[in-house]
Amino acid sequence: MLDDMRRPPRLTARPGVPPVRAVERAVALLRAFAPERPRLGLSELARAAGLDKGTARRLLLTLAAAGLVEFDERAQLYRLGADVLGIAAAVEAGRDLREVAAPVLTDVTEKTGATAFLWVHHDGTALCVERVRAPLLRIDATWFTVGARAFLNCGGGPRVLLAYITEEEREAALAGELPQRTPASETDPARLREAARTIRARGWELAVDDFFVGLAALGVPILDRRGAFVGALSITGLTAGIVEDGRPRHLDILLGAATRIGEQLR
């Protein structure tokens, strides 16, 4: 499910430092919102956060006072507040990479007609830190926005991350949830390890129908000037636009773009 993709693994409290339950509950309410669910009712929010409606309402009132949540009286629905954008702007994860890569992604989309994504590994998932939408909205993978997460067993960009992260990070990801999104989704850890070796050896990944039937994705790694892995670049679109005679289309464009990004990174 999309909300599962967007939700990072639950953090474990440090020994001797108990978590603050009210903060955990408030965070759960904020995480209930998603691109395809930007406005939610009290019952939906309470259910998503595992709370009773009275507790959810009190927490939402506090979040609203802080500017993190807004309430539409007429529709009786909640939505994230504008102050969330200010907090998001301060996030450092992938910032330097994103600033360098943004114009390159625009160029990739213009040349390929596909939606371009920039991914980094974070807490066992693929975190989307930049996206440039395809000009044809009907083929846009709208479930992926900046800040969205994906598991590493599906998709061109996420599977490239699986191949290039450290062995310890890979094993941690493979020990977690590996969702079967479509019949083509690979969920067997042993086969995913083998796939990771193959991806790393050839330097790219072509994923077809494994995230959404009818779509394909092509992903390549981004290496900085020292050769260190920093993230993945991918494109997504209708399979006919990404695959030709079983081979990836636009591979040279994507590899060139990844090189351009890497050369600008310090």
From TrEMBL:
The keyword DNA-binding applies. SUPFAM superfamilies: GAF domain-like (SSF55781), Winged helix' DNA-binding domain (SSF46785). It comes from the Bacteria. InterPro entries: GAF-like_dom_sf, HTH_MetabolicPath_Reg, Tscrpt_reg_IclR_C, Tscrpt_reg_IclR_N, WH-like_DNA-bd_sf, WH_DNA-bd_sf. Residues 20-82 form the HTH iclR-type domain. Residues 76-266 form the IclR-ED domain. Pfam families: HTH_IclR (PF09339), IclR_C (PF01614). Keywords: DNA-binding, Transcription, Transcription regulation. This is IclR family transcriptional regulator. The lineage of its organism: Bacteria, Pseudomonadati, Pseudomonadota, Alphaproteobacteria, Hyphomicrobiales.
